[in-house]
Design goal:
Elements: H1 27-31, H2 34-47, E1 55-58, H3 64-75, E2 79-84, H4 87-96, E3 100-103, H5 109-116, E4 121-126, H6 133-137, E5 140-148, H7 161-166, E6 170-173, H8 179-192, E7 198-203, H9 207-215, E8 222-226
Parallel strand pairs: 1-2, 1-4, 2-3, 4-5, 5-6, 7-8
Length: 228
Amino acid sequence: MPTPGTLAEYITVPTHRLHEQPPHLSDEQAAALPLAALTAFRAVFRKGEVATSKKVLITGIGGGVALFALQFTLAAGAEVYVNSGSDEKLEKARSLGAYFGINYHQDKWFKALQEKNPSGFDAIIDGAGGAAFGELTKMLAPAGNMVVYGTTAGQPSPLHLPRLFFSQGAIKGSTMGNDEEFRDMVAWVSEKQIVPVISSVRPFEEVISAFDEMAEGKQFGKLVIKIA
């Protein structure tokens, strides 16, 4: 975070960390970009090694990082699957280009997902952890990457380690990124004309209600606060 914090009219940052705003983005769209897009960029490309024709699963679609991961993997030419606890969010994700979506409140959703993609996933981008984690690792394709950038659902369930090492799978932690990755992310967004998904733009007076909405998982995309 910037030294003076955030949600301020003015902050100070080192000049080497200033980048030109992608010209196709509005100020609000550009404001939605930095941290979530950087986190997704590293998870997808540096850790997940996503490329054309790869099959990718993104969990918890609707959050900022997950949606950027969806947009980045689609732009890379991958076939993207998503999950969510909301049918409405799944429908929105499909409208953005997701190949398949499944509700994790559905009975036996793991089995349904495996039947849809029996060959497994080349990369799984997960920000949840929790009880589903162990089952998700079983869905990796040979030499697949399980990329973890968060634990919103708590500590992971037990892993089936023989399945993991016999398939040459990898579990990789990932968070945020460095200056080089930020530069590459901005260039990628410009090249692919990616537009951040914004749930709403709020005045500063509504900042608390915006955080409440995020805590309840109601938003689809980034919540942007307009300072002035």
